[in-house]
Amino acid sequence: MGVPSSLLTANSTVGRQAPLPLPLPKKPTLGSLLTNGQSSVQTFRPKKKFEPGTLRYSLHKQAQASLNSGINLRDAVRLPPREDMNDWLAVHVVDFFNRINLIYGTISDYCTEESCPRMSGGPSTEVFSPSLFEYLWVDGQKFKKPTPLPAPQYISHLMDWVEGQINNEEIFPVSVDVRFPRTFVPTCKKILARLFPVFVHVYIHHFDRLVAIGAEAHVNTCYKHFYYFITEFDLVSQKELEPLTEMTRKVCKDVVILSPRHR
After folding, report:
1. CA distance 51 to 245
2. Which of 54, 69, 145, 182 has the greatest number of CB atoms lying within 10 Å of its CB?
3. Domain count, the chain
4. Which residues bind Zn(2+) (predicted)?
């Protein structure tokens, strides 16, 4: 399989070193963190928060309350009546960044340059295989051409780039009096498309660790929430979702996914 095009064109601000390995959380911790969106342990990088009293803080709390109430996730992702789609999208992009950051943090001490020499979803090989989903990094600055990187480096550059986007007030305006730019939705689509490979890598290469720390069900719920949101608003192409087709069928049992030749 080729490399999804949206993963090859985004600009990035790089410079921070790869994080040191993190201690594994106790088994109940990850579930409570993913449910409540709060962290009592060190995560892969600082959590992005909304300012109390703002519209997006209220939407964030509304979305969290829906999740905590046990509402069907497919219903939970739908745009609430009379709410602005851009605000709803901003809240979820930031929330998914925080959650995926936390998920990766729980296995990052097992994801090393030696164990994961390529950012991929499939067998680790030095020769590109048609059956291997491999993601190459390019940022137009340090990496001007698509470059294979060890998974920890790739994810570090990726999180730097996402963090730079969501902290840029010209893209994610803080005040409700400031309009979202025309580039906002395309940027959000690119962010979500670039975060998806973290699920791919964690599921395919580190699933045993998720099971070992009792996090499998909680990560499945996070993935299900992510998948329902991006498909509800057509934010990521089906081609880019192909690496986790079988996992999606198992986790999202009400989803019908056609094979490529039947689309």
Report:
1. 37
2. 54
3. 1
4. 111, 116, 201, 206
